[in-house]
């Protein structure tokens, strides 16, 4: 359910674009993003900062798209989000001395452990050099995606860009997740791997 809710705005954006147009799709994206915020508020009692940021970007760029009837604004949404994520990883690591990729990985592994059949607490130590490599890898991937999105937005048709936004970005992200899993696999406890 949670995974579906994460991708619901994107799925509905794609469907409405295919059946109506980019402006209706943008409106649906904004509405479903706000519903997503409401769900997180009522289900978890709080809304994660990333959801607020993603909603604000969708609201501003989507609102400008609808207001000016110009698809160029919504095309920037993915670029802005991925660039913000890349910059956040850099600033967090080198200014605040926190590795957000490491923190996210530990959180995901602990969550998976809590949902598993084992009662044993998760005891995982990822080597710092692996976490540093993963942080830099994700910075590079996110920056690449940000640049690639805007390149495709201005050099290909709107149809091609929408398909890339939905399937291409998801594919690149999936490959990055697989690479991340491969790099940490040997450090997982036996029952987690």
UniProtKB/TrEMBL annotation:
<keyword id="KW-0812">Transmembrane</keyword>
<comment type="similarity">
    <text>Belongs to the YciB family.</text>
</comment>
<keyword id="KW-0472">Membrane</keyword>
<dbReference type="Pfam" id="PF04279">
    <property type="entry name" value="IspA"/>
</dbReference>
<comment type="function">
    <text>Plays a role in cell envelope biogenesis, maintenance of cell envelope integrity and membrane homeostasis.</text>
</comment>
<feature type="transmembrane region" description="Helical">
    <location>
        <begin position="136"/>
        <end position="154"/>
    </location>
</feature>
<keyword id="KW-0997">Cell inner membrane</keyword>
<protein>
    <recommendedName>
        <fullName>Inner membrane-spanning protein YciB</fullName>
    </recommendedName>
</protein>
<keyword id="KW-1133">Transmembrane helix</keyword>
<feature type="transmembrane region" description="Helical">
    <location>
        <begin position="51"/>
        <end position="68"/>
    </location>
</feature>
<feature type="transmembrane region" description="Helical">
    <location>
        <begin position="166"/>
        <end position="185"/>
    </location>
</feature>
<keyword id="KW-1003">Cell membrane</keyword>
<dbReference type="InterPro" id="IPR006008">
    <property type="entry name" value="YciB"/>
</dbReference>
<feature type="transmembrane region" description="Helical">
    <location>
        <begin position="74"/>
        <end position="96"/>
    </location>
</feature>
């Amino acid at each position: 359910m949670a995974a579906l809710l994460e991708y619901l705005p994107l799925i509905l954006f794609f469907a409405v674009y295919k059946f109506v147009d980019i402006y209706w799709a943008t409106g649906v994206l904004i509405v479903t993003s706000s519903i997503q915020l409401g769900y997180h508020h009522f289900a978890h009692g709080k809304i994660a900062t990333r959801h607020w940021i993603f909603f604000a970007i969708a609201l501003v760029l989507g609102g400008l798209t609808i207001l000016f009837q110009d698809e160029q604004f919504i095309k920037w949404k993915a670029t802005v989000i991925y660039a913000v994520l890349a910059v956040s990883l850099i600033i967090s690591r080198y200014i605040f001395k926190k590795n957000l990729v490491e923190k996210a990985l530990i959180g995901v592994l602990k969550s998976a452990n809590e949902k598993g059949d084992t009662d044993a607490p998760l005891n995982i130590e990822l080597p710092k050099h692996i976490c540093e490599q993963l942080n830099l890898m994700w910075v590079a991937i996110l920056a690449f995606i940000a640049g690639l999105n805007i390149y495709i937005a201005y050099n290909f048709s709107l149809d091609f860009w929408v398909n890339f936004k939905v399937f291409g970005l998801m594919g690149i992200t999936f490959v990055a997740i697989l690479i991340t899993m491969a790099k940490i696999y040997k450090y997982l406890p036996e029952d987690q791997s």
